[in-house]
Amino acid sequence: MTTEEKEKLDAYLKGIVLNLPDSPGCYQYLNDDGEIIYVGKAKNLKRRVYSYFSKDHQSRKTAMLVSKIRDIKYIVVNSEEDALLLENNLIKRYKPHYNVLLKDDKTYPSICVTNEYFPRIFKTRHIVRNGSTYFGPYSHIPTLNALLELIKNLYPLRTCHLALTPENIRCGKFNVCLEYHIKNCKGPCIGAQSREEYLQSIQEAKEILKGNTAEISRNMLAEMQALAAEMRFEEAQTIKRKYNLLESYRSKSEVVSNVLHNIDVFSIEDDENAAYINYLHVTNGSINQAFTFEYKKRMNESPEELLTLGIAEMRERYKSRSKEIITPFPIEVEMEGVTFTVPQRGDKKKLLELSVLNVKQYKLDRLKQAEKLNPEQKSVRLMKEIQQAMHLEKLPMRIECFDNSNISGMDAVAACVVFKKCKPSKQDYRKYNIKTVVGPDDYASMKEVVRRRYSRAMAEQGELPDLIITDGGRGQMEVVREVVEDELGLRIPIAGLAKDDRHRTNELLFGFPPIVIGMKTDSPVFRLMTQIQDEVHRFAITFHRDKRSKHQTVSALDTIKGIGEKTKTQLLKRFKSVKRIREASFDELAAEIGQAKAKIIQENLPAEA
After folding, report:
1. Residue 361: other Cβ atoms inside 10 A
2. Where is this gene product found (predicted)?
């Protein structure tokens, strides 16, 4: 675009912005091809749209959006609530490139009450706009099945697909089926059940689907008592069976006091790429609807913006008219006749906690599914969690951990293990013999090893770690810091893994002075840290045992004149240990290495200390 063309475009857009009304509404940004690339809502259209063009945007995505705008359209509405609903519908209709994307890739089932002379009730995934009533969708299928089973046990409704019109019934076109004979249907097809009685059952079933079970239960109890008073005990027993079924269902579904009626509950969890929103609808203390869904972020949207959009989506989808909405934080949107509540205690707080529990589980399930398809995604997530927990400048792509091993200073060794992208990189593991330290001095040994490793890495321009972990607490961290920072002048973050009295790792330390990083011991990050610690300990102790074993063998056999490496190997292969060589008879030794060498062994192999 030339400078002249840009000036003309700026003047054109400025003219539109300055003439926008100070009213609620929705605005649409269009690109060169006339496609809608972004839809937004505003309490004040002029002020909101003007903010896009009046400042430099720090967000790269927002700056990119503004650079693509070639035209602006808008729709004025009566209220902010109308703007919210219109925005939601426009996003679903046009799917603009820069708007959040609702990831609703499953067709969840609903319960249909058909618009027929004798209605049917069944599960379906297809919505037909023919006057039928739909309840749902239900993301939790067991809840849907439990409702259908309850209605089936309470009301003998037809399941056939016959066209039960008054004319067909009068003409006697139908015969009863097995359902009639086993008393699951009262035979409306042959006129054995009146339409009024049948529709009464349908109406009560609808109330159950709406969650209004308390009133139906009270009516059943009153009817049962009236029948018993009239000595109609068999009929009272039939009502009692239904009453018990309904009460059993209510006891399982009621989560809080039944005083809480017609309330919507929302919660949200998000990360840098997506947001997960849970919706619960509560009627008479019972959760009547529960649904969790995902938004794909496009423009670094805030949790408040996404939750506001989610509220509009769910209330429209479920045709909710609740006068109270519970949210985890204040929402700056006005909805006529609706109160927003951020509960701090009591039953409403319990409902919010239940919603949060559901959305966190949904997020975890989605992450696990994604990690199965892309295993490296789990490593990236772990590294990001470590980075956030320790406030590191960059992802810890390479982590190195050190450990010492010795017995009273004898055969002192150290080991370094390397984890790349949270996975062991065994070709980078290194073993070290302690050369300058005499006696059991772990701090001095650690200093020597760290100094040797990173001095060489600097001299050879080798790869340095993004994070160093010591198998020890504050003391080990400090001696590593003295070498890395004070002596070598390197800036590498250092963490420490401290153990409790039972020698179990229970704390992750970081910083100077070291502080405890708050982390659950069963979290994935803590398990990774424990895995690194176990690996370096295994590697160090294995090296120490090998060296100790070799040292013992050398002191016993290699000092005997006339016994070479080949003979020693032959003897150890046959007798397995120096102890068994010492215990072997002359004939056994001679059979293996000859009489001359057998005699040398027996005369010169020192007795066991």
Report:
1. 14
2. Cytoplasm
Residue 263: helix, strand or coil by DSSP? strand
- Same domain? For 268 and 245 the reply is no
CATH of the domain at 292: 3.30.420
Q: Is residue 382 part of a domain?
A: no
Domain span at 81:
3-94
Number of independent structural domains in the chain = 5
Three-state secondary-structure class, residue 194: coil
Q: Look at residue 150 in the predicted model and tell me its pLDDT.
A: 87
Mean pLDDT over 558-567 rounds to 79
| Counts of helices then strands in the chain (DSSP H, E) | 20, 20
Q: Is the pLDDT of residue 113 over 90?
A: yes
Residue 519 shares a structural domain with residue 564: no
To the nearest 10°, report the CA torsion of 588, 591, 593, 599. 60
Contact status, residue 604 vs residue 560, Cβ threshold 8 Å? yes
Answer yes or no: is pLDDT of 551 > 60.
no
Which of 398, 532, 525, 421 is closest to 467 using CA atoms? 398
Q: Which residue's entry shows tokens 């659950």? A: 520
Calculate what percentage of the chain has a pLDDT beyond 70.
91
Q: How far apart are CA 173 and CA 162, in angstroms?
A: 10
Contact 239, 224 (CB under 8 A): yes
Together in a domain, 428 and 516:
yes
Q: Of 197, 224, 254, which closes a domain?
A: 254
**Tens digits of residue pLDDT in 376-389:** 777 888 888 888 88
Most confident of 73-77, 256-260, 602-606: 73-77
